[in-house]
């Protein structure tokens, strides 16, 4: 198993490249406006939206992996991440344009079929319908983007909570270690006090023995000289 700091990033990058290739293939295959292709295009767009969400997830994972890389190699992978983000943004724009075209193709034929051919307001009606379709598509994209941001915010909040929980466990472990160290210090201090007390007792005993010997020597010398 590869445990290098960049292995997970490169794995996510490969998955991301596979996803973007699949999205690009679906968008290119459904780019033309053929008759009877609206329903197939809508199904393809739904699959594209799911893969775009997967691409966003891969980008988020790569951003997390970059934070753990050494500073000496981080800049190269940051550049690769920016390239991936730009590619994903381009695909999102293509998907948005195709979605707008699909909605137009779905709405316009029914509207134009119901309008008389000599209606002088047919062009205005078509313009208003196109404008409304564009606004609807923009609103849908903004809603999807808001949903994605909310999911990312939820993931970030969950990561923060996990980090805080881990830090709390580390603090509690450090506190227990400090308590154990404090207890060990108290025991060591008690042992030192006992040793010091015994040392003083030995000194007093030694001094008393020396004093007794000196007194005996003095007495012996006194009696001998007398």
Automatic annotation (TrEMBL):
Q: Which InterPro entries match?
A: SNARE, T_SNARE_dom, v-SNARE_N_sf, Vesicle_trsprt_v-SNARE_N
Q: What is this protein called?
A: V-snare-domain-containing protein
Q: How does it sit in the membrane?
A: Single-pass type IV membrane protein
Signal sequence region = none
Q: Name one GO molecular function term.
A: SNARE binding
What subcellular locations does the record give?
Answer: Membrane
Residue intervals of the T-SNARE coiled-coil homology domain: 128-195
**Keywords annotated in UniProt:** Coiled coil, Membrane, Protein transport, Transmembrane, Transmembrane helix, Transport
Which Pfam families did the record assign? V-SNARE, V-SNARE_C
Q: Which residues form a coiled coil?
A: 45-101
Q: Which CDD domains match?
A: SNARE_Vti1
Q: Name one GO cellular component term.
A: Golgi apparatus
Q: A GO term (biological process) for this protein?
A: intra-Golgi vesicle-mediated transport
TM annotation in the entry: 204-223
Q: Tell me its family.
A: Belongs to the VTI1 family.
Per the UniProt record, the source organism is Calocera cornea HHB12733
């Amino acid at each position: 198993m590869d445990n290098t700091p960049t292995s997970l990033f490169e794995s996510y990058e490969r998955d991301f490249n596979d996803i973007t290739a699949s999205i690009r293939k679906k968008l290119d295959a459904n780019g033309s406006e053929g008759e009877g292709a609206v329903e197939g295009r809508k199904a393809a767009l739904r699959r594209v939206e799911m893969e775009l969400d997967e691409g966003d997830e891969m980008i988020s994972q790569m951003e997390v992996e970059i934070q753990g890389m050494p500073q000496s190699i981080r800049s190269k992978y940051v550049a690769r991440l920016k390239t991936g983000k730009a590619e994903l943004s381009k695909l999102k724009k293509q998907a948005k344009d195709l979605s707008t075209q699909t909605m137009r193709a779905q709405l316009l034929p029914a509207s134009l079929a119901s309008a008389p051919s000599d209606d002088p307001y047919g062009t205005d009606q078509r313009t208003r319908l196109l404008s409304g379709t564009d606004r609807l598509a923009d609103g849908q994209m903004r809603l999807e983007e808001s949903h994605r941001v909310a999911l990312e915010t939820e993931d970030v909040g969950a990561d923060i909570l996990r980090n805080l929980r881990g830090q709390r466990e580390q603090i509690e472990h450090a506190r227990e270690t400090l308590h154990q160290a404090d207890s060990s210090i108290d025991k060591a201090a008690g042992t030192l006090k006992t040793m010091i007390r015994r040392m003083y007792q030995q000194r007093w005993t030694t001094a008393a023995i020396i004093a007794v010997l000196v007194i005996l020597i003095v007495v012996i010398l006194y009696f001998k000289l007398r």
